[in-house]
Amino acid sequence: QVQLVESGGGLVQAGGSLRLSCAASGRPFSSYTMAWFRQAPGKEREFVAGITWSGGSGGSRYNADSVKGRFTISRDNAKSTVYLQMNSLKPEDTAVYYCAAQLYLVVSASKEAYKNWGQGTQVTVSS
Fold first, then answer.
1. How many CB atoms lie within 10 A of CB 76?
2. Is the pLDDT of residue 122 over 90?
């Protein structure tokens, strides 16, 4: 098991930027594929971005179409942390953002593929 703690959420104006962090503790971080999901009020939790475990596709990254060109996922295995850099934020990006992890997984956009979740951090983008 791995424990995940997100941080970095907040209130930002449209066009602004935020960087989310997810610190992991427990089993070797490099063995986990990491992902960010988000859930807006009244909507399903949706995939935002993922990055493979280090021994798989070597940290390959995948983004949802809705955030391509604006959001970037990265990982620092030495710090057991995954990041989500969010630029050019839009009001429709407002949601609770969750970090997820799963051992040796090919990045999946399905939330059912991930067994480890953080508590979430709120991101609010004002127009």
1. 11
2. yes
